[in-house]
Here is the input.
Amino acid sequence: MADIRRKVTILGATGSIGISTLEVIRLNQSAFNVFALTANSNVEKMLEQCLATKPRFAVMRNDEAAAKLRELLKQNQNLGTEVLSGDAGLSHVASHGDVDDVVAAIVGGAGLKPTMAAVEAGKKILLANKESLVMSGRLFMEAVVKNEATLLPVDSEHNAIFQCLANGASSHASGVRKIMLTGSGGPFLRRSLESFVDVTPTEACAHPNWSMGQKISVDSATMMNKGLELIEARWLFDVSPDQIEFVVHPQSVVHSMVEYNDGAVVAQMGQPDMRTPIAHTLAWPERIDSGVPALDFMAMSKLEFEAADLVRFPCLLLARRAAEGPQSYAIALNAANEIAVQAFLDELIGFADIPIVNETVLDDTADAEPATIDEVLTIDAGARKSALRLIEQIKCERDRPGRRENA
Ligand code: NAD
Ligand code: MG
Here is the structure.
């Protein structure tokens, strides 16, 4: 009998979103079949996932990791899994003719090319990798239309907005006045501003409500994540940035809201668990079990909402500037942020240096509207270089003996 299950490629399978996706698929094995899994270099996790799901392809971005996986899989030839590597391997499994759904869950700008490969092949794309849309904006959305791809947001706020817009009805047609993008405020919502210079990577990654990869955890602590989400929402729902408002909501129960012209506000609620939006996008327009328990309203104490503090979280302002400016601003801000976050995680710069690096690179960015993805990547590479140079300067400044004595 023909296999009618949808064949799924998971780009970034070994990460937080990838693992949650595999959990949802495991609960719904009669509807979904894993076609391909990809990762950067985590061979152990990839081997474990291959043994559990028997995919047709496993792709390691890193060549050495691919060779290692191939060796390990030799002892399990009955799996029938072929190992590929590099960018070519990622794009191959994102655009393969047999694939139905592509979960875009690579972190950062590295996700742009494989996600675009899926778009150009007209796939159903479950988008977690917000950075790819932030970087390419209009080009990405035009490619979705041109190639008749289906784009569904996995990011919890955007998934919520999509649901509040009656399954993706156009925001113009449906009389939307405002989109309220909620965010918990991260681990440092109440921490004294003076002590931001002492924040450690461990503290920054300890999100109060969500368990996520390191990069997005740091982005939540600076609220750059909410800023990237503003740019993401602007493209996904075709609204102007000034129609999107940040709302701090520490409990992460309301995942975002849409306010209509007639005064009605529609909110989407649920546990802070990414398996819900993942299941929603996998099954859309149907509903499936995600393994997430329902909200218990009787056990809930209160839901709080407050304005975002733009002094505490300057990255929000930078993102608004980028959202309102030419595409080159969003590319540069995203690139600088990726480099700054990695430098912070590597303990080369402090937490409070992240917005400084981001702002300086943004200030130096020329106005440009790239016409191709290659042009996007050229602007991206330039901004990364500037950010790295700046980080070197910050390090030299910090290591100067006089400076240390004064500190
Ligand atoms: P993660 O760090 O846990 O996982 C990232 C995955 O990408 C891993 O499988 C890794 O092997 C792969 N990867 C990393 N660098 C790569 C490279 N250069 N080339 C190819 N593959 C590479 O990240 P995550 O938390 O799962 O986030 C993934 C994406 O989803 C991000 O864009 C993030 O903003 C978005 N997102 C995550 C969450 C969440 O709850 N984790 C929520 C909303 C959106
Ligand atoms: Mg989000």
